[in-house]
Design a protein that fits this description.
about 90 residues, alpha+beta, 5 strands
């Protein structure tokens, strides 16, 4: 199993949000807290088990640094990053 960290880009594999792309805000107690800048904002991330998400192997280095350092991240930055991805 691949390790999932803050700033990683993941895809949902189960639930009503299947195939939705998210960015991991933080990881805690076997759960990833996911944001997409639209329905799941920086203030209200989605809690999802590791077994229900799949890493895409991509990440935004600038967002990763901001999330890991605790700097302020805007929902617009999250949306822009997700929109610029080339994930199939």
């Amino acid at each position: 199993m691949l390790e999932i960290n803050s700033g990683d880009i993941v895809k949902s594999t189960k639930g009503r949000d299947i195939n939705q792309i998210y960015i991991v805000k933080y990881v805690e107690n076997g759960y990833a807290y996911l944001i997409d800048g639209r329905g799941k904002t920086v203030q209200k991330p989605k809690k999802k088990k590791f077994k229900h998400i799949r890493p895409t192997g991509q990440c935004s280095l600038s967002l990763k640094e901001k999330l890991q350092s605790g700097a302020k991240v805007l929902d617009a930055e999250i949306r822009k990053t997700i929109n610029n991805l080339s994930i199939i």
